[in-house]
Design goal:
The chain is of the alpha/beta class. The chain folds into two domains: 29-61, no CATH class; 76-147, Ribosomal Protein L15, Chain: K, domain 2. Helix content is 20%, strand content 11%. It has helices at residues 55-61, 80-86, 95-100, 134-142; strands at residues 76-79, 92-93, 111-114, 126-127, 131-132, 146-147. The longest helix has 9 residues, at 134-142.
Length: 148
């Protein structure tokens, strides 16, 4: 279809109805321009509730209902399967060695090794300086390794 003047129209949602305030009483939004009479809300630049001095007490008194942020540092987690893939039999697993292999960002924080009940470990590994879940500890000890 050829574009001609009679079939041009704006794309959907591009045209919004604008309230033309202060254009006479016949428009329905004349005289006070829909702002009512007097008061801060009627003035230009009025009704900025965040800047009111009493708003701070309101904010402090309302309870925080969204979540909780602990100040304890979170442990970095590593799966036992990933550890078994990177380390050979008889090697010692510690935060330092995990950081050297690139499995964790740095050796500074706490590290926890997570187990998987379906995964059977075939290597003899020893873990030092890391927290270990119950299933991971069981898998390591069954394979002949140790958790210090």
């Amino acid at each position: 279809m050829a574009i001609k003047l009679h079939n041009l129209k704006p794309s959907g949602g591009s045209r919004k109805k604008v309230k033309r305030v202060g254009r006479g009483n016949a428009s329905g939004k004349g005289t006070t321009a829909g702002r009512g009479t007097k008061g801060q809300a009627a003035r230009t630049g009025g009704r900025n509730r965040r800047k009111l001095r009493g708003f701070r007490t309101v904010m402090l008194s309302t309870p925080k209902l969204r979540g909780f942020k602990s100040d304890k540092p979170k442990m970095t987690t590593v799966n036992l399967e990933a550890v078994a893939g990177e380390f050979g039999s008889g090697e010692v697993i510690s935060p330092k060695t995990l950081a050297q292999k690139g499995m964790i960002a740095s050796a500074k924080g706490n590290v926890k090794i997570l187990g998987n009940a379906a995964f059977k470990l075939k290597k003899k590994l020893s873990v030092a300086g890391c927290a270990v879940t119950g299933s991971a500890k069981k898998a390591i000890e069954e394979a002949g390794g140790e958790v210090k």
